[in-house]
Design goal:
The chain is α/β, with parallel strands linked by helices. 27% of the residues lie in helices and 22% in strands. It has helices spanning 2-36, 75-87, 109-117, 131-134, 139-148, 184-187, 207-210; strands at residues 42-50, 59-64, 92-95, 125-127, 151-153, 157-162, 168-173, 196-200, 217-220, 248-251, 259-262, 280-288. The strands form two sheets. The protein has a six-stranded mixed sheet with strand order 1-12-2-3-4-5. It has a six-stranded mixed sheet with strand order 6-7-8-9-11-10, with no helix packed on it.
Length: 293
Amino acid sequence: MRGLFGVLCRIIRGVLGVIFTIILLAVCAFIDARYIEPKLLMVKKQEIITNKLILNEPLKIVQFSDVHLGKDYTLTDFKRVIDKVNALEPDLIIFTGDLIDNNKSFNEEEGVAALLKELRATYGKFAVYGNHDHGGNGTKRYARMMAASGFILLKDSSETITLENGQKLAIIGIDDIILGRPNLEVAFKDIEASVFNLFISHAPDVVDKVKMQPIDLQLSGHSHGGQVRLPFIGAPFTPPQGQKYIKGLYPIEESNGMYLYVNSGIGTSQLPYRFMNMPEITLLLVSSKAQDR
């Protein structure tokens, strides 16, 4: 009997040990997802090779997205983003939408514009609408903040910039597909296939509607990379128009060599958690094909 009792005690201790370990891991995961990872900030470097430009040095395009300013991501947090972007000394800055999480409860418009105004880029700063930028009657407010901070807000429109060596680069941006009214025909009406065309859409899944256009690179956000990613599973939940292309670089099939990059975003929405998916600033290094090694 004593031997059986000893075996039972060891089994119970083993089971309790497993249960305790699971609880401890769950608590650690919760603390990380709620209080640690959302406040981290990484710079993700991504090289893009093109035969449309001849460059002695890579063109530095810095993208940030989905800040979702509010009670869970404050102006103090955002200041770190601004400083980190400027430290990269970008040639172009691209913001792919969703600046404020809830326009109805947010009242720090001037502070946001002041921080965005601090951003510096050689060839300019460009932005598009996200669905949260329209939500809560935020459409005009977002346009005001972009104008006050020196951003060019592209809404079914394009801008052509001339690089220092005389070559041209076109930037095309559309209205948000969820709460806006994008007109792709208008957006692409003046686009030339011979120049490097950078397309900006808040929602990444739009790529399937534009992949036959002469686009070299699309930049998007919206998905937050899933916001919470699980081992061996990935992102269990992603938003509409961000369900096919979720995170990182995608070569687009049935296109003319187009690439899509989906930024994982800065802030959070719906729930204030991030897990295995750090907030991200993207540094895209556009290089000539001749520089490819």
